[in-house]
Amino acid sequence: MTRVLVVDDEPQIVRALVINLRARGYETDAAPDGAEALRLAAARRPDVVLLDLGLPDTDGVEVIRRLRERSRVPVIVLSARHASGEKVQALDAGADDYVTKPFGMDELLARLRAAVRRAAPAGEEDSGPLLVETDAFTIDLAAKKVARDGRDVRLTPTEWHLLEVLVRNAGRLVGRTQLLKEVWGPAYGTETNYLRVYMAQLRRKLEADPTRPRHLITEPGMGYRFER
Fold first, then answer.
1. How many domains does the chain contain in total?
2. Is the bond preceding 186 in cis, omega lying within 30 degrees of 0?
3. Distance between CA atoms of 71 and 64, rounded to whole angstroms?
4. Which of 96, 119, 142 finishes a domain?
């Protein structure tokens, strides 16, 4: 069963989420603040985290950063903060998705399922070589690993999925809408800010000079391309 960690200090929201998730077969834990969230994440090892940013003891963005120090668990932010800067900050810290309050339960569950699918082990693929090498890093598609300078690079499930789609289409332009739908799902065709944030993260982790990328190329106004 999929285990969900709900992190929110509003009891009525927690109760509604727990009831709906358990009714659909999810195992759930709940935390009212960041400290308890980090403790439960370590002890219970959830498959996905639903995280409010406005916690009483620490900002949710800091919780995301601390989770990312030790875990690739998908994190979906639930927040009443609508500003674009707040969304980018959360995504940049390592969140996988951002849902603004109030939200519909059907939409949230669809996004939760999509996040879990992105984190699931990939099935067998026959669309090209399983080991891709560049002058800066090596990608093992079968093992879902990336190495740079002989050391593993830690990618979140969303970062990995984005890189994988580009690598499996090496040398070809992948349009922004196609990328969004393949990585996040069919409801994300216009969330181009997600691509900007995640491509910047991948470049910081993989490119020798992130400001002048050689492998993760932007085609302005169209999409992205992976070059060896």
1. 2
2. no
3. 10
4. 119
Pair 56, 33: CB distance under 8 Å: yes
Exposure string for 193-205, b = 16+ CB within 10 A, e = fewer: ebbebbbbbbbeb
Q: Which two tokens stand for residue 82?
A: 């609508």
CA 190 to chain centre: 17
Rounded CA separation 223/37 (Å): 37
Specify the DSSP class assigned to residue 154: P
Do both 111 and 10 map to the same domain?
yes
| Tens-place pLDDT, residues 94-145 | 999 999 888 899 989 988 998 888 887 654 444 456 899 999 899 998 888 9
In this prediction the pTM is: 0.74
Q: Given 119, 151, 180, which residue is the final one in a domain? A: 119
Q: Is residue 96 within 8 Å of residue 111, measured between CB atoms?
A: no
Same domain, 9 and 113: yes
Range(s) of the domain holding residue 192: 131-226
